[in-house]
Amino acid sequence: MELPNHSYIDQLAAGNKAFKEKLLAVIKDEFPEEKAIYLKNIAAKNHKEAAENVHKIKHKISILGLEKSYEIAVAFENNLKEDDSTLRTEFEAVLNVISEYLITL
Question: PTM Phosphohistidine: at which residues (predicted)?
Fold first, then answer.
């Protein structure tokens, strides 16, 4: 599985260390709550709400340079809109990788 990186963040920051740190802080702050809400909705089989949660999370996946994981998130979001939880395991593996990564920041 691919690992988070700062390639895209570095492009956005264009050498501005304060901006980079602020962006990472926002992700570190928001991601755990967004993940928890997603897990609550998916456990309750609220697929439409879970799709909205995935939509928010997928942007953080992209920002963290996880291109293949972003594709999984897009497909999973679309599946959830059709009440199909296929790709749940793959998506939640991505969430776990991000959670572990954020602990290191």
Answer: 55
